[in-house]
């Protein structure tokens, strides 16, 4: 994908990056290449999203797993519009001034979940720093709409940090998602370059607060590697997440969307990913998913079933 909106060459997709020098995009190693998306099921999923005017992070963030997931009719819904108020150096979601909230979006997400017959759904969003509650009430309405349309579906949310939005987190937790995910994304040393609008300890405190409010909700966080972090820093992030009582950690390879985005420092080998998984399990996570193509919502339904079994096996642990 380019730095421009498709079909609108005059509109910058990432205006905050326009002045930055280009970073060459490295050729991906064989272990990280995926097939181009196609097939009837893929097309049917795409048509459903278009028909209900829904956004997905699968498309907006140029996820490499879109072909596999959409062929299985699994999609990660992105609410609160398609334009983010922040401009992280790794993210391909469009940035700028957001549109007004669509009041029909929660019900449309519920309808799509029911039509796709999802047993587990992931709902994420853009950052909406322009909203008084950061979009918390919209998240809560979406959770309730899914419950109404598809009562048997378990719900995983991947939220912004709700920075400086007093009371927002409580609104979301009160709607009782089954999994609350918020990604740290990278090591704290790299935040000024990679995630300049966020604060590492604000994100940690958010995850810790979820457990304080409702210990029965599974908490989850993700890390990208290949941005210049050290193995020691990855270990420290793991320790910080465990101190916040986070249950599940995902680790995946950072892939550079355009020349204007942060450059890939290196491609981490599958063997290194496995060593991170072993390290994380030793630190006490219920689960660690760590492969080059791991993303927050990749195989989320299967992972949720494993989380439930592991919690029962570790009875008394929340």
UniProtKB/TrEMBL annotation:
Record's catalysed reaction(s): [[Fe-S] cluster scaffold protein carrying a second [4Fe-4S](2+) cluster] + N(6)-octanoyl-L-lysyl-[protein] + 2 oxidized [2Fe-2S]-[ferredoxin] + 2 S-adenosyl-L-methionine + 4 H(+) = [[Fe-S] cluster scaffold protein] + N(6)-[(R)-dihydrolipoyl]-L-lysyl-[protein] + 4 Fe(3+) + 2 hydrogen sulfide + 2 5'-deoxyadenosine + 2 L-methionine + 2 reduced [2Fe-2S]-[ferredoxin]
Keywords: 4Fe-4S, Cytoplasm, Iron, Iron-sulfur, Metal-binding, S-adenosyl-L-methionine, Transferase
Cell location: Cytoplasm
Domain of life: Bacteria
Iron listed as a keyword: yes
Cytoplasm listed as a keyword: yes
CC cofactor: [4Fe-4S] cluster
Feature: compositional bias, Basic and acidic residues: 13-22
Annotated positions binding [4Fe-4S] cluster 1: 58, 63, 69, 297
Every Radical SAM core domain range: 70-286
Protein name: Lipoyl synthase
Organism: Azospirillum himalayense
Phylogenetic lineage: Bacteria, Pseudomonadati, Pseudomonadota, Alphaproteobacteria, Rhodospirillales
């Amino acid at each position: 994908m380019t730095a421009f909106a498709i079909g609108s060459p005059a509109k910058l997709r990432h205006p905050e990056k326009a002045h930055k020098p280009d970073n060459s995009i490295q050729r991906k190693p064989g272990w990280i290449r995926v097939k181009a998306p196609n097939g009837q099921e893929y097309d049917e999923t795409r048509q459903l999203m278009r028909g209900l005017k829904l956004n997905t992070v699968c498309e907006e963030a140029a996820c490499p797993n879109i072909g596999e997931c959409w062929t299985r009719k699994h999609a990660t819904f992105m609410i609160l519009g398609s334009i983010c108020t922040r401009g992280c150096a790794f993210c391909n979601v469009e940035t700028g001034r957001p549109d007004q909230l669509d009041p029909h979006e929660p019900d449309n997400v519920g309808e799509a979940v029911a039509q796709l017959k999802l047993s587990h759904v992931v709902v994420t969003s853009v950052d909406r720093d322009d909203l008084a509650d950061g979009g918390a009430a919209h998240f809560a309405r979406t959770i309730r709409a899914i419950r109404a349309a598809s009562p048997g579906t378990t719900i995983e949310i991947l939220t912004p940090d709700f920075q400086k939005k007093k009371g927002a987190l409580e609104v979301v937790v009160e709607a009782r998602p089954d999994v609350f995910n918020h990604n740290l994304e990278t090591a704290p040393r790299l935040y000024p370059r990679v995630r300049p609008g966020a604060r590492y300890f604000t994100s940690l405190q958010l995850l810790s607060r979820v457990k304080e409010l409702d210990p029965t909700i599974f908490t989850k966080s993700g890390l990208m590697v290949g941005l210049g972090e050290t193995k020691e820093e990855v270990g420290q992030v793991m320790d910080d997440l465990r101190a916040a009582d986070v249950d599940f950690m995902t680790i995946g390879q950072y892939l550079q969307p355009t020349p204007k985005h942060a450059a890939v420092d290196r491609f981490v080998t599958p063997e290194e990913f496995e060593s991170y998984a072993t390290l994380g399990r030793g630190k006490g996570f219920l689960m660690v998913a760590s492969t080059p193509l791991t993303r927050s919502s990749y195989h989320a339904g299967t992972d949720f079933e494993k989380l439930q079994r592991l919690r029962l096996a570790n009875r008394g642990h929340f």
